[in-house]
Write a structure and sequence with these properties.
It is a single chain. This protein is mostly helical. It starts with a helix and ends with a strand. It is built from 11 helices and 5 strands, in the order αααααβαααβαααβββ. The strands form 2 sheets. A 3-stranded antiparallel beta sheet has the order 3-4-5. 27% of the residues are buried.
Length: 300
């Protein structure tokens, strides 16, 4: 009896583990906003990175324990709006945009709005499905890339100019570009499972090892260039595939294949559905015969 009670208690407590990671992401997001308002911008960026780590673990833990739920998906999206939408924009606002004055806070609104739209679209089209790519730039990637700009701005490369424009002006275009990419249809690859059984697993392992080595060798300087490399990879791949007309269109919704077949009048096993009626090929006459029998659908 005790073992049964303990097993049932464990099953009830299991969903708390992935949701705990999600709430940890929210904690770091709010802590980042507080530190940014106090002028501790560098430490605020660290909380965004830790929030990104929590966000990466909650889904994996939910799948590993079999505790994934619609509630967890909705909670994760609401938290991501704060941690990767609002918090990164306030970090950039307090460190860069506020010094320029004017209405640059509207750029923060644009980024937050695009993050919210992107997450809402994800819940409708891709949440709960096995996926190899994301439709639009994922909000965690956009938020972490934007936040770690401040770390990158403290490097010697920050003092250099790109195309005659200082980096503190370039970040405004980076911010706008990331916002637009979140609500675009540009496909971005999902992180594959790590392993040796498939080439995707090998790529995932190589990416993980490369990221760890990059952080170990370059420290904080690694994050922003790595994020921009991911952003530019998806955008460049889409442009190249667009030239050969091979852009992925995403996973079709349930029932799309049947609707297409009915609209085109494709035959399946001698029977095709047209509206609510079916037509069957005659067995005797050849393909050119006009004898087609209409058969009503059986009552459901």
């Amino acid at each position: 009896m005790r073992s049964r009670i303990r097993r049932s208690d464990m099953r009830r407590a299991a969903p708390a583990l992935p949701n705990g990671f999600t709430l940890g992401n929210l904690f770091f997001g709010l802590f980042a906003i507080v530190d940014a308002s106090r002028g501790e911008v560098s430490r605020a960026v660290l909380w965004i990175v830790l929030g990104g780590i929590c966000d990466g673990f909650d889904g994996r833990v939910a799948r590993a324990t079999g505790t994934g739920s619609r509630f967890g998906e909705e909670l994760d999206s609401l938290v991501d709006v704060v941690s990767f939408g609002l918090a990164p924009t306030l970090i950039i606002y307090f460190s860069v945009l506020a010094k320029d004055g004017g209405a640059w806070w509207l750029l923060c609104f644009l980024f937050c709005a695009c993050a919210a739209i992107r997450l809402a679209r994800f819940n409708v089209t891709q949440a709960g499905r096995v996926k190899t790519y994301f439709q639009g730039l994922p909000s965690p990637a956009a938020g972490v890339t934007l936040a770690t700009y401040f770390w990158f701005s403290q490097t010697p490369l920050y003092d250099q100019r790109v195309l005659g424009m200082p980096w503190n002006d370039t970040v405004k275009f980076v911010m706008g570009g990331l916002a637009i990419l979140m609500i675009s249809n540009v496909p971005y690859p999902a992180m594959p499972k790590i392993g040796f059984r498939s080439w995707r697993g090998v790529i995932g392992l190589a990416a993980t090892i490369g990221s760890v080595l990059g952080i170990f060798l370059y420290g904080r300087e690694f994050f922003f260039p790595a994020g921009m490399a991911y952003v530019l990879y998806g955008l460049t791949k889409t442009l190249v595939l667009g030239l050969v007309d091979r852009i992925p269109t995403g996973e079709p919704l349930e029932g799309d294949h049947e609707d297409d077949d009915a609209a085109k009048g494709e035959w399946r096993g001698g029977v095709v559905a047209v509206g609510r009626r079916r037509r069957r090929r005659p067995r005797g006459p050849g393909p050119g015969s006009s004898a087609i029998h209409a058969i009503e659908d059986p009552p459901s």
